[in-house]
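Annex B. Sample input.
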Amino acid sequence: DRRLPRSTARRRLPRSEVASMSWLVLALLVLVVSGVAAVLASLLTALASPDHHWSVALPGRILRGSEIFEGMEPLVLSRPLADSGPPAAALVPWSMTGIVMAAFLGVEVWRYAPWAVYLWISPLLAFLFAFLGLYASGGGRQSQNDQNGFETFSL
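Annex B, continued. Sample output.
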């Protein structure tokens, strides 16, 4: 009957610490799921619609009413939508953005797509940031140069 010394014995967490950690994990999971859902909804709307504005407005209206986004900052929903749908719309040949870019460049969409790095990397980064739970937050801070009282944007 050998017992471990107290320093190497397993320490049990109090119930309050376990409960607070479980709420933290749940909140992080909700942030990740909500961000990924926003990115996917924006991309699918960009593929299905002829206008890049719909890729922000339509999923924003639909997801804003869901229980996942209830009580969250609007930035948590708007940032992934704006970072994924409108840039990807220029890669869709039947989108107005894709039609205009193809007409200005004089080539088909699939020909300029490899060189339009921003158009395909922005949705990928939005998905990565949403998956990691990283969102931009103004934090309510104001710039010293801002005389009008508008909130500044900072990462």
